[in-house]
Amino acid sequence: MINFISNNIIRGVFLSNGSFRVANQGLSGNILLGANNLGIQKKIYLGGGLSLSNDTLVSSGGGGSSALFPNGVKVIEDTAYLLSSADAGYYLVAINPNTHFIMPTPCPFSVGDVIGLAGDLDTTTFDVSSTVTDIQIFTGQLPENGETFIMQCVDVGAGAEMLPLTAIIDDNGTFKTLNKYLYDKTVTPPAYDDDAAAGAAGLTTGMVYMTTGSGSAPLNAAGILMIKQ
């Protein structure tokens, strides 16, 4: 066991099973990163009975317990995956590029059901309903680097529908999760001829854009990174 100490207080410790505990005071740390005592399941213990594991996100404490994804992880290999009631309570991870999670009509889930969606590389899309479709999820090099998009089934008065727990943005006709939208705007800024064109499109001072190549010199080259004045 290796201790990390500052001001005569243990701030962290490597345990014998390879885990690392971040401590608040002494050894009463409330965050544990690494394996359990069998060296198998990696967890993050948050204190107060709360934990996050690699196969299930579990919250417990205060005399009761609940599970966000009580059924764990379901690996999705089908690139056109039709969602069903059997997916309730699962964290669905697409492992192939260009996977699309299809929401059938009517909604197959029951009120209270929760599902999580994630994709691995390239474009992963999903439907919320028959009218809101092909929504892009932010994906990373690995699932843990990307986005987990969560939806819950609610009664909207005219039947059950799956509603997202975060925003969906219409980006010039392409639906994206908020994380995907913000990432795209950061990595690939919008293109305009010049500062005036950017302002006319709604950009404000300090926002980033790049040139189209159709502007006057010296902005007659595409891809010049600019800041709106």
Task: List the defining traits of the structure above.
7% helix, 2 helices, 8-stranded antiparallel beta sheet, mainly beta, elongated, 229 residues, 5-stranded mixed beta sheet
Question: Short description, anyone?
Answer:
By secondary structure, the protein is mainly beta. The protein has helices at 178-187, 195-200, and strands at residues 2-6, 9-14, 20-22, 31-35, 42-47, 50-53, 57-61, 64-67, 72-76, 80-82, 90-94, 100-102, 114-119, 124-126, 135-137, 149-155, 160-164, 168-171, 174-177, 191-192, 208-211, 225-227.
Overall structural class, as computed from helix and strand content, comes to mainly beta
How many strand units?
Answer: 22
Number of helices: 2
Distance between the termini: 56 Å
What's the helix and strand layout?
Layout: E1 2-6, E2 9-14, E3 20-22, E4 31-35, E5 42-47, E6 50-53, E7 57-61, E8 64-67, E9 72-76, E10 80-82, E11 90-94, E12 100-102, E13 114-119, E14 124-126, E15 135-137, E16 149-155, E17 160-164, E18 168-171, E19 174-177, H1 178-187, E20 191-192, H2 195-200, E21 208-211, E22 225-227
Parallel strand pairs: 9-11, 10-12, 11-13, 12-14, 20-21
Antiparallel strand pairs: 1-2, 2-3, 3-4, 4-5, 5-6, 6-7, 7-8, 13-16, 14-15, 16-17, 18-19, 21-22
